[in-house]
TrEMBL record:
Residues 314-678 form the LptD C-terminal domain. Residues 57-98 form the Organic solvent tolerance-like N-terminal domain. Pfam families: LptD, LptD_N. It comes from the Bacteria. This is LPS-assembly protein LptD. The keyword rRNA-binding does not apply. Its main location: membrane. Keywords: Cell outer membrane, Membrane, Signal. Together with LptE, is involved in the assembly of lipopolysaccharide (LPS) at the surface of the outer membrane.
Length: 788
């Protein structure tokens, strides 16, 4: 029979409320055992207030009771309120003692898949005191669970379990199993305490703790973190044991003592803070005595930002290391895209209505190779300081005004001039790099006319700069001068169109675009040979740079121009979603006069047309992605640069990528990456209820970058993975070139216990994600294709 119960309190409703409170208290306790990173916290005990006004539905073969005595439901009993469901063979509520009892196949479940079951449950409803005998439990987000001999409730904020087990494997014969003699849960303090915890892998104990504490929610808690061993060819085996210190809700610190078999004892630390107007991270690595070098070594990383009085913003981003070889020996601590050029950048700015003044100090640490036979690394200039103001704002008549002016003091980085390779160049008659001051002003006035299908933007601009140098100019038309000024006007017209039409491609409704663009630039010639070059470089020749007015970046060099750049792009879009399926384009620059300001003050550029730039990409098929950019030279009648890539992705952890990069006289590389099954099931087959199937499968993943000009592998990553269904094992080897004759090799080992944690060295999962396009961890959905 089925009996819906209305919200007014009754004996039956109290019975269901007691069952719900058991489930609410059980949920965070189960989650607390091994809540995965990023998982949402379960509601705290006693938080069922939001459910109290929801109706309770009771279904049973028979329901009987007496007023003020109690209610008994028997035969396939099912009580449901909101997301909670209680089923049992028999459920009774004794009103005088306020005690609810359930017996015979008792099961508490939530709509999101969590459940707790056992032969008997008894609870004093209002005091929320009682027990669940011999329960089993399952946590849906981790797809793991276990058993306990008894689960006791001591009020809404306290619970304890005895002889607890936890695994994501088949519980009758688990490959890994976490056990604890006794677990106490204090929701009021957000703390759990386990005694006699042991992690067994194939019945072999691999971790044990007499007692440890853990948080019951996403809130942070002080304590030791899992150990982190590493292994590489330079430092050998290293063992780190992190300790997390939760100083305050807005401040914390991680201290990591490190023991290296070859280098000795060191310490890594990270301090974080978050204030209403300030936030920052401070990282420090200290190795007082490196046994391999006999020196003290270390690194300091600062990332601080915030607001000062008067709406003034500041930001400090800096990294400094102890020596030139630090980036080779401790690559994990040099989080930089340019590991040999480490910058320190302090910026202070304030934004007014349309004006932004700023001040900046930018310095560099240049890590030159200790092998003097290696080429000299040319360093950027330090800016001590850089002070300026910029604005972009409309002015009457539909015009737009842009302006920037700066003062810079340029200096060589510390120690740069003392490098033996620099001294050799000076001794050979090469003039030392210029240092000094520069004031520049960049101004422009444009009249943009923009519509959805057409744009027309005429613009007039000026690049002016004045130099005060520390040494006289060594050669050229400005030879012997220390004060030089120049101003260069420029005019441009930029126009673009977009045409669209509906089409049918192989039975698919698509929208095709035709997007021509023309840019005319006229820039006056000014003699710049011999002037200092503090921050300019030739722009890379690509789709973006071909539509720029200056062939150089920075301020110090401005290319004279009387030229038109023309190109056209066509795209094929999905008519329903707007997703881009195909892109093809071509662009070329036509010079009406010679360009006399050439790279490195070299010869005049006399060719009337630039190289042709062709580019395209396609993901017309869900499994194939193609990408190419080609640069063709009319003068040489051949390709001078090309980047071509293709990637195939499919479900079941299948992805293969191949890329070819070529630049005449500089580089020629082949890059191959993959992730592919080797042997075993095509994908994991998980059971729907108590755990996962443990049919094993072997996989391989890796990436190899080969230089054809140098005839050597410059970087390689290779891994073998085994997925049993409830644990994943990985073995990884990585080799990185640090010079033409040196390389570092790292070995990574990792065991991931699905639903618990990872143990291993050198974090192979992160290495594979960072290096292999389309790589997906084996615990991700096997039926979904890899990311494009």
């Amino acid at each position: 029979m089925s009996l819906p119960v209305a919200p007014p309190v009754s004996g039956v409703r109290r019975l269901c409320a007691g069952a719900l409170l058991v489930a609410v208290a059980w949920a965070p306790a189960a989650w607390a055992q091994v809540r995965p990173a990023g998982a949402a916290s379960a509601p705290a005990a006693g938080s069922s207030g939001s459910l109290k006004d929801q109706p309770v539905h009771v279904e049973a073969d028979a329901i009987e009771g007496r007023p003020d005595q109690g209610v008994t439901a028997t035969g396939d009993v099912k009580l449901r309120q909101g997301p909670m469901t209680l089923t049992a063979d028999r459920v009774s509520y004794d009103q005088p003692t306020d005690t609810a009892r359930g017996s015979g196949n008792v099961r508490l479940a939530t709509d999101d898949g969590n459940w707790l079951s056992g032969p008997e449950v008894q609870i004093a409803v209002h005091q929320f005191e009682g027990f669940f005998s011999s329960p089993e439990y399952f946590i849906a987000p981790t797809r793991a669970g276990g058993r306990a001999s008894r689960w006791d409730f001591h009020g809404r904020d306290h619970a304890e379990a005895r002889d607890l087990t936890y695994t994501s494997c088949n519980r009758d014969d688990p490959e890994w199993l976490l056990t604890a003699d006794h677990v106490e849960l204090d929701f009021e303090k957000n703390e759990g305490r386990a005694r006699g915890a042991v992690l067994r892998f194939y019945d072999v104990p691999i971790l044990a703790a007499p007692t440890f504490t853990f948080p019951l929610s996403d809130d942070r808690k002080s304590g030791w973190l899992p150990p982190s061993p590493t292994l590489d060819s330079k430092g050998g085996f290293q063992f780190a044991m992190p300790y997390y210190w939760n100083i305050a809700p807005n401040r914390d610190m991680t201290l990591v003592p490190v023991i290296s078999a070859k280098r000795g004892v060191g310490l890594e630390s990270e301090f974080r803070y978050l204030q209403p107007a300030h936030e920052g991270i401070v990282r420090l690595h200290s190795l007082p005595n490196d046994a391999l070098t006999g020196d003290s070594r270390g690194a300091l990383r600062l990332l601080l930002e915030g607001a000062l009085p008067g709406d003034t913003l500041y930001k400090l981003d800096g990294l400094r290391v102890s020596d030139n070889d630090y980036w080779k020996d401790f690559p994990r601590n040099v989080a930089s895209l340019t590991p040999r050029l480490l910058g320190t950048d302090l910026t202070i700015s304030r934004h007014f209505e349309r004006w932004t003044p700023y001040a900046r100090i930018k310095t560099w640490q240049v890590l030159q190779d200790s092998d003097l036979s290696e080429p000299l690394l040319v360093a950027p200039y330090d800016r001590l300081p850089q002070v300026g103001v910029r604005t972009v704002q409309p002015i009457p008549g539909g015009l737009q005004f842009g302006f920037e002016t700066e003062y810079n003091r340029f200096a060589n980085p510390h120690g740069y001039m003392g490098d033996p390779r620099v001294q050799e160049l000076i001794a050979a008659g090469v003039a030392p790099r210029a240092t000094g001051e520069r004031v520049h002003a960049l101004g422009s006035v444009s009249w943009p006319y923009l519509t959805p299908g057409w744009s027309f933007v005429p613009k007039f601009g000026v690049n002016a700069a004045s130099y005060q140098l520390d040494q006289p100019i060594a050669n050229g038309p400005y030879q012997g001068q220390t004060k030089v000024s120049r101003a260069i006007p420029s005019f441009s017209l930029d126009s673009a169109w977009t045409f669209e039409r509906d089409a049918d491609w192989f039975g698919r409704d698509v929208r095709q675009t035709l997007e021509p663009r023309v840019l005319y630039v006229r820039t006056a010639y000014r003699q710049q040979a011999g002037l200092p070059n503090f921050d300019s470089a030739v722009r890379d020749f690509n789709v973006d740079s071909i539509y720029t007015e200056n062939a150089f970046s920075g301020v110090d060099r401005v290319s004279d121009a009387n030229q038109v750049t023309a190109g056209v792009t066509t795209r094929v879009l999905d008519a329903q979603t707007g997703a881009e399926n195909v892109r093809l384009g071509i662009a070329q620059r036509v010079l009406f006069s010679d360009q006399r300001v050439a790279p490195d003050d070299g010869d005049t550029i006399t060719q009337s047309v630039s190289d042709v730039l062709l580019f395209g990409s396609s993901n017309l098929s869900k499994r194939w992605y193609l990408d190419a950019a080609l640069q063709y030279s009319h003068d040489l009648r051949r390709m001078v640069r090309s980047v071509v890539g293709a990637r195939y992705t499919a479900p079941d952890y299948r992805t293969v990528g191949l890329a070819y990069r070529y630049k005449a006289g500089e580089t020629e590389q082949v890059d191959f990456s993959w992730q592919w099954p080797l042997y075993g099931p095509a994908r994991r087959e998980r059971l729907s209820g108590t755990g996962t199937s443990c049919g094993g499968g072997w996989y391989t993943a890796g990436r190899v970058n080969y230089s054809m000009l140098e005839s050597r592998v410059t970087e390689a990553v290779a891994a073998v993975e085994y997925d049993s269904g409830c644990w994943v094992g990985r073995v990884l080897a990585r080799r990185q070139s640090t010079s033409t004759r040196e390389a570092t090799t790292q070995v990574g080992l990792e065991v991931e216990f699905v639903g618990l944690s990872r143990l291993g060295t050198n974090n192979p999962t992160k290495v594979l994600k960072d290096n292999i396009p389309g790589y997906r961890p084996l615990r991700d959905d096997p039926d979904a294709p890899a990311a494009p």
